[in-house]
Amino acid sequence: MIEKLAIANRGEIAIRIIRAARILGIKTLALYSERDADSLHVRLADEAASLGSGGVNETYLNIDKIIEIMQAMGVDAVHPGYGFLSENAEFAQRVVDNHFVFIGPSPGVLRLLGDKVQAIRMAKDAGLPTVPGSDEYVNDLDHALDLAEEIGFPLIIKAVYGGGGKGMELVRSIEEMEASFESCQEMARSYFGRGEVFIEKFIDSPRHIEVQVLADHHKNVLHLGDRECSIQRSHQKLLEEAPSFLDDETRNTLGRKVTFFARQLSYRNAGTTEFLWKDGVLYFNEVNPRIQVEHPVSEMITGIDIVVEQLRIAMGEELPYSQEDIQFKGHAIEYRINAEDPLGGFFPQTGRITRLHIPTEPETRFDTFLYPGYEIRGDYDSLIGKLIVWGRTREEAIIRSETALKELQIAGLKTNHTLFPLILKDPAFKSRNLSTSFIAERKILEKLADYERKVVAAFYMVASQQMDSSMLVSSVPSSKSSKQLLISTDNQWKQKGRWEMTR
Known about the structure:
Layout: E1 4-7, H1 11-23, E2 27-32, H2 40-44, E3 47-50, H3 63-73, E4 77-79, H4 89-97, E5 101-102, H5 107-114, H6 116-125, H7 141-151, E6 155-163, E7 166-171, H8 177-192, E8 197-201, E9 207-215, E10 221-233, E11 236-242, H9 248-265, E12 269-278, E13 281-288, H10 295-302, H11 306-314, E14 331-338, E15 340-341, E16 347-348, E17 351-352, E18 355-357, E19 364-368, E20 375-376, E21 383-391, H12 394-407, E22 409-411, H13 419-425, H14 427-430, H15 438-441, H16 444-471, H17 479-501
Parallel strand pairs: 1-2, 1-4, 2-3, 4-5
Antiparallel strand pairs: 6-7, 6-8, 9-10, 9-12, 10-11, 11-14, 12-13, 14-21, 15-16, 17-20, 18-22, 19-21
């Protein structure tokens, strides 16, 4: 039984975990860095404990400090959320060794899946199709060159313990091999502390498909359908939807293979198996052994609270439904709202929230940690919220999304949410002709730049017209009319200020 739960994370996922814990009557302990002292998850938790000042390594990645606080505060379990320590086998092992419950798979499974070469071997054994490439470590350049000749170009060199879009080198010719191989090894050592790499055939502009799984301690494993996450920038997802474009037969077949794979791994709790789709073929990519950022779209089409189920599984409860009980209803789309400038290389933005209006339409939710007056300082990931919209059909979900995106207002800093209306209007998006290169191929950033130029031009045209009108009020201005002109001119700049804040 879990009576008190520590949350080793921050932001919207920490709040999501707090709300799930409340449903089950579990008290929560928010762990926070001093930079997050005024964050919403600290206010909403039953208790809070500081991880101290300093950067991420001294706070949210400080295993010793987290274990020390858990012992002092008398918690029973810890939920790592996503990112930070969520896939760290050492952390999971320390949690278990100190007689706490880790909300996630076992340390052994985390170790296995953290090694991408081992994961590929296991996937092959479970009958999942894999990308052509090495199923062993590539430790020297001669081995890499032999594989390159066998696989062909383009190919991609990856860090064995990599993730998050880091530790990868695309190679398009034999002349690039030596520099790219050495660069990837160095990145692997720098980012992940280990230099092992492997090589795969590069799948150019694929679709990204994934399957959500739940597994308990009573040998019950089921899937909650698939998701499509093809709309990305810099290998980071921007928009996700469920279900994907796959037909029902393919989806069910894939789901059976993924649940079999989970059984082979002795997997427990929530997890996601990712695939790349190209030219009618699905290739295993990796397993994310944690809750995913995009889990809400699966919740919206199944009615299952995945985070609540994570907690129930961790407490030893049996899943209360079978695969036959899972029904997929409608379509859901998630929009990742990031504090970043799409036209400035998606550079992270900072600022204080001066106004926040959240859509309240039925079948719409906004998972966030924002509130008016909260300051985004740029210390952490740029994700500040997730807008999730459900419709009876994909077309209805898109229409509802257009309304929700118009109603969502975040003033005080620049965000990426102006991208999404342009994506939704694109004919390729409407016809589901998607790939991970969608943003570039459909020139979405060019369309955004053109849109912003037109908005600025329209604003100044209106401002100019209003100013001209005010100056024609009287050919010989009295002191009163001069005052009116001054007020009118001042209002134009106030209006411009408001527009700048909501860009």
